[in-house]
Amino acid sequence: MTDTFVRPDWTPLDLPRAEQSFCVTNGDRFDTTDPTTGEVVASLTASTLEDVAGAVERARAAFGRRGWRNDGQVRCRVLFRYAEALRANRERLAELLTREQGKTLAESRNEIEGSADMVEFYAGLARSTYGRAIPVGDDAHSVILREPLGVVGVITPWNWPVVLLMRALAPALAAGNTVVVKPASLTPAVTVECLALLAADPDLPEGVLTCVLGSGAVVGDALVTNRHVEMIAFTGESGTGINVLKQAANDLRKVSLELGGKSPNIVFADADLDKALDGAVNAAFTTSGQICTAGSRLLLEDSIYEDFLARLTERVRALRLGDPLDPTTQMGPVVSRSQQTSVNGYVELGRAEGKLLVGDDLDDTEALRQGCYVAPAIVTDLPRSSRVVQEEIFGPVLVVQRFSGEAEAIEIAEDSQFGLAAGIWTSDLNRAWRVGRAVSSGTIWINTYHHFYPEAEVGGFRQSGLGRQQGLEGIHEFTETKHLNFDSKSTLF
Ligand code: NDP
């Protein structure tokens, strides 16, 4: 490990640029910083409360002009071109994403590709938000329509800021809504740069896409409480999501919530253990553990516990931390100093309440000290009630739990306030089916982990969320169902 990272020069971006009129920002200046080096990535202007109100008005007026909401062909073409633009700009956007968020360049490239794929999927669906005709008798006709809602507010987190934006933005637009985006304050530059590609499309009507910037407590709250925002699509922490839901409940507006997790990854003794070992590392440490679906609780069956843990410990110790722009790096920093402090707090608690097997050994180099690095950690022997077992840490900390037999595996997996994802590793498909049916999670991977498809719905049980994104349900969330009934009799009664 070198003492400092040698990186290509960077001139901080000054955003939003003059041509980016889809951003409504007249407030204070703020910077985003690179969690690897602490250098400024971009200087931006925040939105004021008046800006948020103006952005919603602009989106409302665009919805009222009707063209966009009634023309699936235009929406389809605009979104297909957007997917291509994201792909064509992949390298530039991936580098910016890595600088602003800290994930490895390979992960950033995947995120931009995945985003393009998501947009493309919903581009196709923009032409097929079909309703249906219902036979209600000789003298009457009924038609069920799926109509757009109006203005949708999309609020996003910083961990996968592009793909999580696209999985709400693309179906919302495909369904004919107009959208106001409020990105996370730690990753606004990459969001603005991605949105600029869409805003540049000559067929995107004025006001269909608007972006506001600034803190969640002020700008986010102003968007959520604006009664002209017909729906809020929120991705973030469970606590913040619950508040969003309460605010929207005041005037009964629609909310979709994609929230936190503490996902169990269950390895049975009959599994392909080499594959399960790869899966356990990927599940827990991708993006330094900052993934809502992270397999942050590893459940190991008694008979394989010691051996598997020994191999896992060796693998985790060998993970290469470093500059995420360096292609040999396997784990970058966490996103910010405050995230680093919060994760380190859980590591200390794990050490006090259980056994810290790995997690003490961050190379003491200037480069790692300067960045927001956290050594990947494994903690065992914790009581099930420990905060380290129960709470979402959102960092590279893996809790390992031991079980004996299927029933206990299910019981431990279910002992959680969350229900976002789970992994099951076994060669017995009947067992996979039984356990898969018994575990309350929105996504369950069998003999794999962290595979996402735009076609497949995601979402949470319990405090992991409300509603579903992606797939067909993902576009239906952004529509309202309407029944039109025609009577063709000559008299009414
Ligand atoms: P937060 O809940 O802190 O923030 C999410 C977004 O909400 C940010 O844009 C934030 O703005 C904004 N916000 C904060 N307070 C308010 C408010 N009062 N009203 C309206 N908006 C507000 O989450 P993080 O950004 O820290 O993201 C990490 C969390 O997201 C984890 O819990 C993770 O599990 C979850 N997540 C869930 C996913 C899922 O699919 N279920 C996917 C990815 C992440 P600001 O940045 O300015 O604070």
From TrEMBL:
InterPro entries named in the record: Ald_DH/histidinol_DH, Ald_DH_C, Ald_DH_CS_CYS, Ald_DH_CS_GLU, Ald_DH_N, Aldehyde_DH_dom
GO molecular function, one term: betaine-aldehyde dehydrogenase (NAD+) activity
Its EC number(s): 1.2.1.8
Domain Aldehyde dehydrogenase: 27-483
Keyword Oxidoreductase applies: yes
Keywords: Oxidoreductase
A matching Pfam family: Aldedh
Active site: E258
SUPFAM superfamilies according to UniProt: ALDH-like
The family this protein is said to belong to: Belongs to the aldehyde dehydrogenase family.
PANTHER family per record: ALDEHYDE DEHYDROGENASE-RELATED
Protein name: Betaine-aldehyde dehydrogenase
Species for this entry: Nocardioides marmoribigeumensis
